[in-house]
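Hey all, sorry for the wall of text incoming. These are the two entities for the joint prediction.
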Amino acid sequence: MSEQKPVAEKKAGKKIGCLGCSFSLGIFIFIIAVLVLFIVSLALGPIGQGFLGIKPPEWLTVPTPHVLLPAEEIFHIGPFAVTNSLITSWLTMLLLILISLLVVKRSKLIPSRFQSLVESVFEWLYNFCKEAAGEKNGRRFFPIITTIILFVLFNGWLSLLPGFGSIMVHTAEGHELPLLRGANTDINTPLALALISFVFIETIGITSGGFHYLKKFMNVGRLGKGFGKLFRGQVKSGLGDMFFGLIDGVVSLIEFISEFFRIISLTFRLFGNMLGGEILVLMFLFLFFVTPVIIPHGLELIFGLIQALIFGFLTLVFASIAATPHEGEEH
Amino acid sequence: MDAETMRLLAAGISMGVGAIGPGIGIGILGMGAMNALGRNPEARGAILTNMMIAIAMAEAVAIYALVVAIILIFVPVAYNV
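and here's what came out:
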């Protein structure tokens, strides 16, 4: 027993990897291989073609990337055009519904591994909502915020799988278009989500504050009081009230416009980040066709998660602002 | 330099210069939030919420610049030739 222990420790200290080599040798070989692939792809790609005049074979050249801002239409159902990003968002919805059905229909008191995974995600999101909006409002806003976050997240992450952008299909008009395209890179999906958020925030505001919520945007009360004072003869305080009432009115107009601007800012934040990530991946693919593409691909992972969380969090924060009653002005 | 080149150049410059201010602003906001969080880790929820609101307001300015750049690139204009 005491002779076997030193032998085992010696073997563990040398860390036998595959093929009998040591572990550090394996890492060394891996790094060398990555560097060689990087230099080869630099030389054979467009940079090498430009500087050194090498003509690589046909199957190694990557065609010049075309980035189209509007999503390409694949087929028509009657007058309704189905674009490739719409197909992708249907896939996302299918995946989410499938996950929900699997967990809910077969839920047990002692959860299986898959159920506990989904439950832990939901618990994290629930704590997220409660942290940002308080106890009561967190529970109230939780369903729609979770839907928005999970939808945007799965849209972003699904578009990283192989097949998105490379499976080509021939349309009826004869073009050859990619069949699948990340749903967040089409401006319609973020726009739809931003409109839903806007309607949600306004509904929460109106149901929580009633008419006072709308009065916040047309704050002419002070101006009216100033006019009344003028007519009753108190000129000085009437003029002062009118002046400040005018300022109040302009500020409320700016707030009214900025409510609507939230739609645009939410849309373009998500759309710009997602489209920028996809353009980055395309450009890296064009310039080096092998190893360094992992860099923007991995960045898309992080950015998909961050942008989904930011979208949901901003909606949550705006809704919780709208839900709190406007305590105490100078009235 | 003809008008088409000028439009593309203007789009690039507008987005580039328009991102300086919001970038610095969001950095300052983050610094303030980190300072506050370091002093009082218990108030994490409130600090984070208010930081997010302020960042959304600052970022909206950068998005104005983005919208201008997108309009410059993608909206065709009839030139008086």
